[in-house]
Known about the structure:
Layout: H1 11-36, H2 47-96, H3 102-125
Amino acid sequence: MPLRKGRHPHFKEVEILKHRKNIVLALTLLLLTTLCCTSALAAGGDVAGAVEQTWTEAAKQIKSVVEKVVFPALDMILAIAFFVKLGGAYFDYRQRGQFEWTGPAILFACLIFSLIAPKYIWNIIGI
């Protein structure tokens, strides 16, 4: 069989190796899929009870993380932004003679809201 221009003499062997690699890759993915996608087995077939129990346990952890990490970080960011905005408003007041209350007032309201939010937010969500 004459060779076409640009074709390697061992083209069929290379093509078979490419197919073999693709087949091995497909079989590996199939094996991983069957191992990772097993059905969830609940005791006695009560899937709803298992999901509810998992949610109750996870909700405690979520609540703890939000109260100890998220709200304090948000409070710190809002407090810094409030004082920066208040300082900027003061310097604008010294320059122009008129104090702009809107920015600091909004940030102060958000800061107060985020400070008291952990007290009532869990009752609204139901955790």
